[in-house]
Amino acid sequence: MLVGIYIGQFCINTLTTFFLTWFPWYLVHVRHMSILQAGLAASLPALSGCVGGILGGACSDWLLRRGHSLTFARKAPIIAGMLLSVTMIACNYTGRQAMVMALMSLAFFGKGFGALGWTVIADTSPKELAGVNGGVFNLFGNLSTITTPTVIGILVAKTGSFNDALIFVGATALVAIFSYMVIVGEIKRLELPATSTQGASA
Predict the structure, then answer these.
(1) Are 162 and 151 spatial neighbours (Cβ–Cβ below 8 Å)?
(2) Span 87-96, mean pLDDT?
(3) What Cα–Cα distance (Å) separates residue 164 from each residue in 5, 86, 103, 170, 171?
(4) Which of the ends of the chain has fewer CB neighbours closer than 10 A, N or C?
């Protein structure tokens, strides 16, 4: 279960890293915006992601109050959000800047909506290892800040196009869906096996 959550966090953070690193470059060099235009445009998906983050958490809590299981209440927003994130691939098939920004904003909204990783970690961590589990979770998420800029750079350099880069980022959202649907299984708190100790005789 925890391995699936770690993989999901890696994939979700890949989306964030793309928007923080290559997205402005994409707007300037592929969509031919000025630096000023790109700076303003890049803020729109970020704002959408903030709204998505709040609504995703609210939706998960609402599902719990409606009597749904913890597993469904956590997984449903994550899966829905990642499906929305995949829409960024459609940017490869439009030349309209307004459509590109709408799709990218929808994708980052979805990323925010599905970013319930820390909530799931709080639900599942063994009480005795909450700090360690949070650290490993963070490790997997931060690994994406290494791999994402590198992989996108290689794809753009080899193909001379950004199309494969968008497919790569969108595909990681699909991997996150697979991870939560297949690997994670039921979301529940892990209990460490009790250790028996024998008192020393005086």
Answers:
(1) no
(2) 94
(3) 26, 13, 17, 10, 10
(4) C
